[in-house]
Amino acid sequence: MSLVSDHQDIDLAPLIDHAVLHPAATPRDIQQACDIAQQFKFASVCLAPVHVKQAVDLLHGKSTQICAVIGFPMGATTSAVKLYEAQEAAEYGATELDVVINLGFLKSGQTDALHHDIAQICDATGRPVKAILEMALLTPDEKRLAAEVCMDAGVAFLKTSTGWQGGATVEDVKFLRNITKDRVGIKASGGIRTFEQVLELVLAGATRIGTSRGVEILRQRDRLGEETAT
Predict the structure, then answer these.
(1) Among 56, 112, 156, 165, which is least packed, fewest CB within 10 Å?
(2) If you average pLDDT over residues 60-86, what whole number do you get?
(3) What pLDDT score does 137 carry?
């Protein structure tokens, strides 16, 4: 409980990317997610490219960013297809892009191909790119190499995972913070369900939090705050 009481004043809402990435998401789900993201002043609503146009219409003139996932969740489409997907999302109005890296390139030592895969999107779209590293599948050396290649390619953030192959850990966030030395942001994503988890990740160095449970997390914060006050 001391973690909560010592950091109750941290404003978490502007750090949250509100995710709506279920494969069966409907237009009604997207409308609800956009309403929630704007109501709670979350940083962005994070969704599949097919939903970008609707989100742009719903959030026109609002402060909430529209984040499209690219190459999600495997990152194994060709570089040309990934680039087209990113350009189309940007043209439709996506203001941020969460791009899954090609893990096959990384693990086979094809660092030039990995660099090109990400750099072309950064250069062509002009949008902040969050490179999704899928940390649970990487060795420490691979994590370091992926981070360095992606930073050199021009990304704005390094993101821990899609959530499909393991979740965010405090250890991984600290690892990335040590590598980045605040040169880029760090987005923790995957399996984040509680307020205390979010606090631990933010204190470890996360500057964005990807979760579909942002509202629940803020309500947990409020309840825990009331408990510590009594």
Answers:
(1) 112
(2) 97
(3) 97
Which residue numbers are catalytic? 98, 159, 187
45, 152, 228 from 217: Cα distances, Å: 16, 34, 16
Task: Please list the helix, strand and coil fractions of the chain in percent, rounded to the nearest 5, in that order.
Answer: 50, 15, 30
Strand 185-189 to 208-211 pairing: parallel
d(CA 77, CA 69): 13
CB atoms near residue 55 (< 10 Å) = 28
Cα–Cα–Cα angle for 79, 81, 84, rounded to 5 degrees: 110
Written as six digits, the tokens of 204 are 């470890």
H-type alpha helices, 60-212: 79-92, 103-107, 111-125, 140-153, 170-180, 195-204
CA-based nearest residue to 71, from 105, 98, 53: 98
Residues in the chain: 230
pLDDT digits (tens, 9 = 90+) for 59-71: 999 999 999 999 9
